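ugh ok so i messed up the first submission bc i forgot one of the chains. this is the corrected input, ALL of the components this time, i swear. 716 residues overall. if the numbers dont match what u have on ur side tell me asap before i send this to the collaborators (the ones from the other lab, u know who)
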Amino acid sequence: MTSFTESVRVVGAGLLGTSIGLALTKQGVEVVIASQSPKSVELAVEYGAGRKAKDSDAPNLIVVCVPPQLTAQIVAKELADYPEAIVTDVASVKQSILDQLIQLGAPVERYIGSHPMAGRERGGAIAGRADLFVGRPWVITPNEKTSPQGVDLLRRLASLLESSVVEVSPADHDRAVALVSHVPQLVSSLLAARLVEAKSQDVALAGQGLRDTTRIAASDPQLWMQILSANSVEVAHVLAAYLSDLQEVVAALSDLDNKANFETVESALKAGNQGIEKIPGKHGSKHSTYAQIVVMIDDQPGELARLLTEVGEIGINLEELKLEHSPSAQIGLVELYVLPTAEQALISDLQARGWRIA
Amino acid sequence: MTSFTESVRVVGAGLLGTSIGLALTKQGVEVVIASQSPKSVELAVEYGAGRKAKDSDAPNLIVVCVPPQLTAQIVAKELADYPEAIVTDVASVKQSILDQLIQLGAPVERYIGSHPMAGRERGGAIAGRADLFVGRPWVITPNEKTSPQGVDLLRRLASLLESSVVEVSPADHDRAVALVSHVPQLVSSLLAARLVEAKSQDVALAGQGLRDTTRIAASDPQLWMQILSANSVEVAHVLAAYLSDLQEVVAALSDLDNKANFETVESALKAGNQGIEKIPGKHGSKHSTYAQIVVMIDDQPGELARLLTEVGEIGINLEELKLEHSPSAQIGLVELYVLPTAEQALISDLQARGWRIA
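and heres the new structure output, hopefully the right one now
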């Protein structure tokens, strides 16, 4: 029976590989790290994500964390090099990788696809975090031949990472992510692309709505071309339906005094209301587990340091912090994130010390 | 000379009206509140946003905070009822309101449009906050006849609300908000609308990307139909360009092995990268104009305060700061944003003091 007391081999020391290493190491699992880039292995090891892989390693689980385009090839190599190990990957497309493995004649009974639904805009080992997967779905996509032991091992991996397992077929996975991830990426990129030629003074009026809708337009084009290439059929299917809806709205905007036109646009807005109702935990933000306290500080050198020193004196641990201010504004807004149980105490103590809470 | 020692009349006691009342009251300005709904006035008064309006009031500034469709009509009435007062509004379209006022023969030399770029998803007096406008742009759109006193008064209003004033013509305003607000609304609503017919198990895989891109799809369709109706020409113009880009991408997805098709989609993603670079930071600063320095700190109380104290000692001004760490990680990453000219000096000084720069 496979067990996590043996070692897990992580191939690829980017954001996901490093984060998996950090989380498993924290749980007392031995992690060995391999990568084509010795420098990333070094960084990940220094960061505490595990130790450097060596020839005598006998991992019972291998997690391949490399770009989608390389995934099938490296999974096949790992299956061949470690004939006892279960191999998984973390690519965000699943059917085409399985197809390639079958074509390569790989022993897919020891392969099970994974897609952890977690990420950050910044990549690289340095962005790795032990809690990257906490509370996030970890999709597993067993193929028809995947062994029950493989499924069991992956479920235990996800549980160690505090992820919740979702089990679907590779094809169902790809249809779903076309809708919830790949099409939103293109829609967002195309929206942001409209800003390129725009006047800076127009873009200067941007509010939170534009920032939210275009945040993912910052994503890496090279990575996304690999994802879109591997899932182009499903993406085109959803995007064509979106295009058709959009054409109707553009046509209707030419004369909104016409009742039918008015109703076309109104229906689109109402359908949008209905659509987001279907998103689970739609009010869940990445900060949902923390309470947010906004403190207004004078825009003077040393004010933030003074605030943080006092937060330290009060003895409450900050989970996250954000400061945004402009050189012109008189006031900076500091967002403090703390555990909900600490919120009230911190607010009263800060107010008692004269801080302004927004 | 008009002064804020006299009273400000707020017409409409929803989110914006109440927030303005709360902020001005806090600053010691007398606020009187009127609304067609006596119940909302009662609520706003109870909430501390001012007192109920009475016939003997002599406001020198009137802020009309009613739905866009009613705005011109109520601004005209207020101009007539208070022949000494400057009148502004807060609707998110400006040219069509001015056109209606001119058509009604209103004395537009005492009218100046406003559009505070602040809001919350929740509406109503109960959602009102005195700090709603702090650090946000307050757009003023003087018309050709607006008196200098009107502009001056509005600037002082914005300053009391701790907003930063942006002055543009009504037409420029409407072109800008079509791009940065109205088109993103439709793009987001249509994306969320795609979820209506989708399988729940597919939508269950939604991550932060879908949540961000569809957040504003929760907006009120009735309010948005008023906004879109008043700005349909500018919206249609931007949306048609978006549609044309989208058509190219959908066509290209049918065969990404074709080099030209691949490049079409890749260019769209790259243009998205470029587009968001143009969006200024939340409070009017551009991330891209600052140099980012990432410092690794031990996850111990006081470490961040110590870092900031030392940055202060080095004598370099922080423009922005972000901290992210997890309770489990041994290390926190602090992102410091400084003027590019200060970057190298800060890095060397921090390193000399023993800080680890990522």
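quick check: The radius of gyration of chain A is 24 Å. that seems consistent at least. Chain A touches chain B through 130 residues (CB under 8 Å).
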